[in-house]
């Protein structure tokens, strides 16, 4: 098995790139002035990384998917993620890079908000593509961070650095929202496929085999990461993917309750519930009646 290079500290990555470590918890640099990473390698990150690519920058592989990065593409890596790097032999790194360790933001408001930035869990083929104006905004923020790191550290340094990182990530949220809108045709196709998959799931014996469907199940069949899939469905419909699954489940349960030849336990099992009492609780929570009461009322 191919060895995974562990880069747990900012200095570890800087050493691979030939970059001076100005601060142990954050690094900002222009890739054009650095060395290429070890080719055909796999790397495990122990920190957050944000990259703004310039020009065609080789290929990253994540799972089954490849993505050839074009000019103005942003990618995000979170602690614990592994990426595979494939480049041409004469590859020259380009673009800007921001690395920051979770310890940098401990005790700050940003630490509480990190779960909001779901794009850190998007797969690499779901990268953010920027317009020229958007690129300039991101570059300006990179340069502000670079400037701050070049200054002597004082009592204001951490606050200014963390606030600029938060501002950069908030802009990325806005730009991803724009990307969901501009890809409306693609999104509509995904929504249609999701509905078909959901129908097929319950029309087959899959629930009896693997149980209740998860968001991850449908995301995997659509070759999307669960977070990207969930964000896309929410933007398109106003409901989360989990809410769509729950609504489908309730509607099917209401229909099947009328089949008096089957017990409530049988219906629960057919829908994927391991225990009938879980089905009963879910049904009452959503209808106000137990399955038996609902069958009697109708």
UniProtKB/TrEMBL annotation:
Origin superkingdom: Bacteria
Matches recorded under Gene3D superfamilies: Homeodomain-like (1.10.10.60)
Protein name as catalogued: Transcriptional regulator
SMART domains on file: HTH_ARAC
Keywords, in A-Z order: DNA-binding, Transcription, Transcription regulation
SUPFAM superfamilies, sorted: Homeodomain-like (SSF46689)
GO MF annotation list: DNA-binding transcription factor activity; sequence-specific DNA binding
Domain HTH araC/xylS-type per the UniProt entry, residue ranges: 192-297
